[in-house]
Amino acid sequence: MKKKELALAVIERLKKEYPDAECSLDYDEAWKLLVSVRLAAQCTDARVNIVVEKLYERYPDVASLAAAPVEEIEKIVHPCGLGNSKARDISACMKMLQEEHDGRVPDDFDALLKLPGVGRKSANLIMGDVFGKPAIVTDTHCIRLCNRIGLVDGVKEPKKVEMALWKIIPPEEGSDFCHRLVWHGREVCTARTRPYCDKCCLQDLCAKKL
């Protein structure tokens, strides 16, 4: 089976298995997703969702967060780890939104990449989840599963995995496909334990490169 055929088959199986898969970070405005995805680096989404409640209670919009002292932001986001660098990035990002984008998150990929603390993964997440545009989010689950399944071959660099997937994943499927990989990676094709291949909906398709 060619990689493109394999990709389409995997997409259909995961659709049936996780029909309602979506981003597990809580947000109701685009700028909040920007903040949360920065905090999520080396931290669980569940913890981020708890921490940001206090952050948004104190700083409820882009303007107030942009004006907040970095030290105060750090005190609140400290439980997410790497508090100093994350607080600096969040502060600088909000300032840039305020000064260059009228307080709004841009819907342009290259513009998103210019924001402090925003890399390709974060920019793709915003493009797909907020703006409904084609996106492929290569987080650790995506990279691990795509290698195990055989959609990519021994490729661990996020950008290279992303570029490879753009060639075989229909653009309109990319964002949801990546969310489903996250769910599947947490529940079945796990990282810290041996994957539960016996209950995997992809077991007859997967190359099982463990």
Write the layout of secondary structure elements.
Elements (H helix, E strand, L loop, with lengths): L2 H15 L12 H10 L5 H14 L3 H6 L2 H8 L5 H18 L8 H5 L6 H10 L10 H10 L8 H9 L7 H14 L23
Largest sheet: none
Question: In sequence order, what are the helices and strands, one letter per element?
Answer: HHHHHHHHHHH
CATH topology of the largest domain: Endonuclease III, domain 1
What CATH architecture of the largest domain would you give? Orthogonal Bundle
Count of alpha/pi helices: 11
Write structural notes for this entry:
By secondary structure, the protein is mainly alpha-helical. The protein has helices spanning 3-17, 30-39, 45-58, 62-67, 70-77, 83-100, 109-113, 120-129, 140-149, 158-166, 174-187. It has 2 domains: 3-22 and 136-199, Helix-hairpin-Helix base-excision DNA repair enzymes (C-terminal) (Endonuclease Iii, domain 2), CATH 1.10.1670; 30-129, Hypothetical protein, domain 2 (Endonuclease III, domain 1, Orthogonal Bundle). It contains 11 helices and no strands. Helix 2 (30-39) packs across helix 3 (45-58), helix 2 (30-39) runs antiparallel to helix 6 and helix 5 packs across helix 6 (83-100).
Compact summary:
With 210 residues, the protein is mainly alpha-helical. Helix content is 57%, strand content 0%.
